[in-house]
Prior knowledge:
It is globular, with a radius of gyration of 22 Å. Among the domains are: 2-107, Methylthiotransferase, N-terminal domain (Rossmann fold, 3-Layer(aba) Sandwich); 369-421, CATH 2.40.50.140. The protein is α/β, with parallel strands linked by helices. The termini are far apart. The chain contains twelve helices and 20 strands. The mean pLDDT is 94. Strand 1, helix 1 (11-26) and strand 2 (30-31) form a beta-alpha-beta unit. The strands form six sheets. It has a five-stranded parallel β-sheet, sandwiched between helices. Strands 16-17-18-20-19 form a five-stranded mixed beta barrel. A three-stranded parallel β-sheet has the order 6-9-12, sandwiched between helices. Helix 11 (300-313) packs parallel to helix 12 (340-363). It has helices spanning 11-26, 50-69, 85-91, 104-107, 150-153, 162-174, 203-211, 231-239, 256-261, 268-281, 300-313, 340-363; strands at residues 2-7, 30-31, 40-45, 73-78, 94-95, 132-136, 138-139, 158-159, 179-183, 191-193, 200-202, 218-222, 246-248, 286-293, 317-322, 369-378, 381-385, 391-395, 404-413, 416-421. The structure holds iron/sulfur cluster. Iron/sulfur cluster (SF4) is lined by residues 141, 143-145, 148, 150-151, 185-186, 225. Iron/sulfur cluster (SF4) binds next to helix 5.
Amino acid sequence: MKYHLVSFGCQFNSSDAEKAAKLLDDCRYRQTDDLNEADLVLVLACSVRQSAIDRIYGLNKKFIQIRRRRPLITALTGCVLKSDMPKMKKIFDIVFDITDLSKLVKLLNAKRPKQKGQSYFDLHPQYRSKFQSYVPIMTGCNNFCTYCVVPYTRGREACRKAADVVNECKDLIAKGYNEITLIGQNVNSYQGKINNVQGTIGFAKLLLNIDKIPGNYRLRFMTSHPKDLSDELIDVLKKTIHVMPYLHLPVQSGNNTILKKMNRNYTASRYKKLINKIRKAVPGICVSTDVIVGFPGETKKQFNDTVKLFKEVKFDMAYIAEYSIRQGTVAAKMDDDVPKNEKERRKFVLNGVLEKTALSNNKKYLGKIVDVLVEKYGRGFCSGKTATFKTVKFKSQNDFTGEFVKVKIKEAMPWGMAGELANSN
Ligand code: SF4
C-alpha cells in the first residue's frame, strides 16, 4: 500500500504529518510523492484561511478522477471546523481528530507493531529533514482570540511532559541535528509535568533544561503570546547559548480598541514596552510579527495606530493578513465592514513601512561575518539562515546544506541579504 500526505497551513501540520508518516511506515505502508500512485491520501487541513479549505475542494476533483479508475482511500485530519465537517465527511472516507492519530491504524484495518504509548505526544515523527526539526511541546490554545479557529479545531491546551521534550531534543542533537524549533500555539503558557511525578515547569525552565545539552545546535521556538512573555523568559533569551536571538511576537493590531475586540489582553503601549525590554536585554535580537488588517470595525484612524506601531517597533519581518471571516469564531458575528480593496490598501501601506525598516535593519549587517545554517543549494547558490533568522544567499561551488558556514555580508535587501563565504578568497 502506498500513501500520499498533503499538509496545508502551518508548522503544526508539518510536524503532525511527520508523526503520521512514522505511524503509516510502521504499518508497512510506503510513502509516495505522487498522488496518482497512492492507495491512501491523508490530508492535514488548515482552517485559518478559507483558501486552504478551498484547496481541499480542489483535491476532491482529483479524488473523483482517480476513483473512476481504481479504489482510493481518503482520510482527513488537522484543523477542521465543526461547520465544515458535514461537507468534509462527504469527500473523505475517514475523518478523525489529530489527537486520535494512533486510531488511524484501526480505522484502516492495518497492523502496527505494539508501541509503548498511544497518545498524540507518544507518537514519534519520521523527520523529513536530516538537520532541522520541529519538536511539539503543546497543542491547543486557551486564549480564544476572537478571529481564531484554533481553540475550536485543536481544543484546549495540552502540554507534553518536559522530560519527553528534553529527551527528544537530546536524541536529535546526538544524531547531529543542528536546529530544533519547539512548537506550540502559545509556548509561553507551557506548563509541562516534569515527568510522571507531581509538579510542572514553565517554558523558560524548559528552555534552560534543553540549553544544558552540549552540542553545536540552534534552539528556536514559536509562537509566543505577548501577554504571557515573562521576565524569566527574557532572562533565558539573554543568558542561554543555544536559544537564538530571534523572537516572533504577534501584535495583530496597534490600536487598543481593536486589540480589545480581538481579545488579545494587552495594549499597544504594553507591547512596545515589552519589545524595548527585550531589545535592551538582548541587543541585536530580531523581531517579527503577525498582524491583521481590516478587522471588523477597524477605522482608518485605528489602522493608522498600527502603522505608527510598525514605524516605532521597526520589525524585521511581518506576516500581514487581510481579515477574513472564520465561521464559528466570535468575530464571525461582527460586521466584516472593511471593503476588500481597503484591506488590500492597508496591507500595501504596512508592507511599505516594513520594507523600509527591514532594509534598514539588514543594512546593519553589511561587512559583518555571520554564521549561516545552509538550508538549500541550487544553481550555484547556497541559501540559509543567520542566528537572527535572516535569509542569506551566497555563491558556492559546494553544496553546504545542513552545515554552518561563515558568510561575509555584502548586500542588504529588505527580505534578505547576500554575501560570500568568509573563508574563500
Ligand atoms: S493565541 Fe489567539 S491567535 Fe494564537 S492560537 Fe490561540 S486563539 Fe489563535
